[in-house]
From TrEMBL:
Pathway: Cofactor biosynthesis; NAD(+) biosynthesis; nicotinate D-ribonucleotide from nicotinate: step 1/1. GO terms for cellular component: cytosol. This is Nicotinate phosphoribosyltransferase. Transiently phosphorylated on a His residue during the reaction cycle. Phosphorylation strongly increases the affinity for substrates and increases the rate of nicotinate D-ribonucleotide production. Dephosphorylation regenerates the low-affinity form of the enzyme, leading to product release. GO terms for biological process: NAD+ biosynthetic process via the salvage pathway. The lineage of its organism: Bacteria, Bacillati, Chloroflexota, Chloroflexia, Candidatus Thermobaculales. SUPFAM superfamilies: Nicotinate/Quinolinate PRTase C-terminal domain-like, Nicotinate/Quinolinate PRTase N-terminal domain-like. It comes from the Bacteria. Belongs to the NAPRTase family. It catalyses: 5-phospho-alpha-D-ribose 1-diphosphate + nicotinate + ATP + H2O = nicotinate beta-D-ribonucleotide + ADP + phosphate + diphosphate. Catalyzes the first step in the biosynthesis of NAD from nicotinic acid, the ATP-dependent synthesis of beta-nicotinate D-ribonucleotide from nicotinate and 5-phospho-D-ribose 1-phosphate.
Length: 462
């Protein structure tokens, strides 16, 4: 869901969508076209991607209009023909969309979303859907890796302050929750998406009191329940001792400290020392949360080394997808007026036609391989294959209902079905993706046709 002014959405496109649209319109080119969105290659260190942002993409398309203010501005652009500005006055996206469900796991060159519409509508949709999918997919993939590393321990999104704008913070919180995080610090995300909202305190609260113990007493006395105290403002072990003292003071009052948070220092060593101190004072029920510069690698290291940490607050490195901040995501014309279309550029060859994505499940219930076929093809007959692309929009109207909780559960089931070598965050696993024999032949014929029409020597398929 975007909190941008809705009037900004139609102008959040690249100028060349308008210049191409104006040319199509002037030339009378209004045939049906299919565009395919996919990721050419995985970022470094990734074995799979987690798709997020599909719902937002569809809602943007459904509400895409050019109001008077937008048209007035477009009319000032010398690159856009006046007759096309008039065409846009009655514009409403009227295409069909097939997409994989939110939370799906996908691999390189697989169709994530395909649009079939008049070529003008399909062209204008490009930045709308790419912008909706790119960032959430980056974050969801990073978050899913953190979930794998956490071994079932709760993770919480703390990334709002360093997310790209308010909309970015919302998208990140949703993507993290979709991928298995347990909650977010982002209050707006709680309101909009129903994500559990969590919060502790900042160091400034402690610093504003004469001393740390008074700060803890003040917070406990005013906070209603599930109290978490931040203990690393001055000295972690002294902070833990203050927690013991404050816990005793409020014993029997209904005010119970449920957790402490360590946000800096040697988290492994400090968590051990704090756990030992709390346990020695009979406070085994107080949990330890760690935060501060965490990602999947640090979480994995801490837990492999036996750090007694019960939950993690994760922010900057996830919402910025720090180690892999961009996807090679593309949106390409693959069919127009009933004819296959493609690029032949070196390293950027595209797969023709409207497609379906099939996934085979082996006898143990794990994912074994994927196959890309023509949209009209039936399931292969050599095992259990699941179709991933679903019709989600018809004639510009959303036909699929969206439930974030169900998408979250579905994503968890997908992760459980991943082979172990793809779940390993420290290595890049290979996964088999092929084209159906029919699609291979269609691709071969299309490449030969284009090469002949353009006077090129036929290029071998890669």
């Amino acid at each position: 869901m975007s909190y941008l002014d809705e009037n900004a959405i139609p102008l959040s496109i690249d100028l060349y969508e308008l210049t191409m649209g104006a040319s199509y319109h002037a030339l009378g080119m209004d045939g049906r076209a299919t565009f395919s969105l996919f990721v050419r290659s995985l970022p470094p260190g990734r074995s799979f991607l987690v798709v997020a942002g599909v719902e937002d993409a569809l809602r943007r398309l459904e509400n895409l209009r050019f109001d008077e203010r937008a048209l007035e501005y477009i009319a000032t652009l010398p690159q856009v023909r006046p007759d096309f500005v008039e065409y846009l006055r009655s514009f409403r996206f009227e295409g069909d969309v097939w997409a994989v469900p939110e939370g799906s796991i996908v691999f390189p060159n697989e169709p994530v979303l395909e649009i079939t519409a008049s070529i003008i509508h399909g062209q204008i949709a490009e930045p709308v859907v790419m912008n909706a999918l790119h960032y959430p997919t980056l974050v969801a993939t990073k978050a899913a890796r953190c979930v794998l590393a956490a071994q079932g321990k709760p993770l919480f999104d703390f990334g709002l302050r360093r997310a790209p704008e308010i909309d970015g913070g919302l998208a990140a919180a949703r993507a993290c929750y979709l991928a298995g995080f347990s909650g977010t610090s982002n209050v707006l995300a709680g309101k909009v998406y129903g994500i559990p909202v969590v919060g502790t305190m900042a160091h400034s609260f402690v610093e504003s009191f004469p001393n740390e113990r008074l700060a803890f007493e003040g917070f406990v006395s005013t906070f209603p329940h599930r109290i978490t105290l931040l203990i690393d403002t001055y000295d972690v072990l002294m902070g833990a001792q203050h927690v013991v003292e404050v816990s005793r003071k409020f014993a029997g009052t209904g005010k119970q400290i449920s957790a402490v948070r360590i946000d800096s220092g040697d988290l492994e060593a400090l968590s051990r020392q704090v756990r030992k101190l709390l346990d020695s004072e009979g406070l085994q029920d107080i949990r330890i949360m760690a935060s501060g510069g965490l990602d999947e690698y640090e979480i994995d290291r801490l837990l492999r080394n036996g750090a007694p940490i019960d939950s993690f607050g994760v922010g900057t490195r996830v919402v910025t997808a720090e180690d892999a901040p961009v996807l090679d995501m593309s949106y390409k014309l693959v069919q127009f007026d009933g004819r296959p279309k493609l690029k032949l550029s070196e390293g950027k060859r595209t797969i023709v036609g409207a497609k379906q994505l099939w996934r085979r499940i082996d006898t143990t219930g794990l994912y074994a391989e994927d196959m890309i076929s023509g949209r009209e093809e039936q399931a292969p007959d050599d095992g259990e294959w699941l179709p991933l692309l679903r019709p989600m929009m018809k004639a510009g109207r959303i036909t699929e209902s969206f439930d974030l909780e169900e998408a979250r559960r579905q994503h968890a089931r997908e992760v459980e079905r991943l082979p172990s070598h793809l779940r390993d965050i420290h290595s890049v696993g290979e996964y088999k993706v092929t084209l159906s024999s029919q699609l291979q032949e269609r691709q071969r014929l299309a490449e030969e046709m284009i090469a002949q029409e353009e006077g090129l020597a036929a290029k071998p398929q890669r």
